[in-house]
Design goal:
Helix content is 20%, strand content 9%. By secondary structure, it is an alpha/beta fold.
Length: 292
Amino acid sequence: MVHVPENRRCRVQLHRALQTTMNHELFPATEPIQSGDRSESQRDNQKKSLEDARPESPATDSQPSRGSAPIASQTLDRTQVEALLAGASSALVFEDCDFELADLSRLDLSGCRFTRCSLVETSFFGAGLSGTQWRNCRGRQADFGAADLHDASFRSCDLNNTSWRRAKLASAAFRESKLTGATFEQAATLGLQFFECLLIGADLRGISFRKAVLERLDFSDADLGGADFRDAVFEGGSLRDANLKNARFEGADLREADLGGLKLTDAAQFKGATISHTQAALLVAELGLRVA
């Protein structure tokens, strides 16, 4: 047995203690590793299970509702239009359709749209046509008598010789349309507007255009007896050879209107209106006088 001096034994024990401490500091014991991938996988599986258990939403119908798709290039009579109205869930849209000579009287077509349709001699007598829109339609001699057309809109339509007798035309508008020979006898016309329209020979007796701005309206040969043009402003347009008996023009601005053919006997109708020097000279010329 080898004898180890006491002081040497202490040094050995101290050295071993220091070595152990250094090993712990340099190579600390690692904590148990939690499997993050496993936890994430468990959450995904749980989420998928919940989604699978959720009841499915009913499939939405991507097809347009009946009546929303345009009805195009068809020749339609009353029976066919009635069938379309019965099956429609919204206002009908007609494009390039032919209604010529059809009797559509008293049908409710409110809100419908008509584009490039033929309405020649079609009867809409007493029909519900409020809020309808008409674009590029041909409606010679169509009958809109007694129809409800409030808020209706016509643009670029040929409506020559049409009848609007006793029609309800409140807030209706005609733009860039032909209404030669049309009759508006006894029509309800509060808020009715015309823009750049031909109203040659039209029957517009008693209609009020008071305070309206009349943009390029051709009233040539029209019957304007009893019409109210007070405070109206004519921006172009014509009153040539129109019947102005009992029409009122107080406060109207006629300087841009064509007053050709006006007789001196009609001059009294323009009492209170504003006319140009050129127009005044034309009136004086009726007396055989010249303005120097």
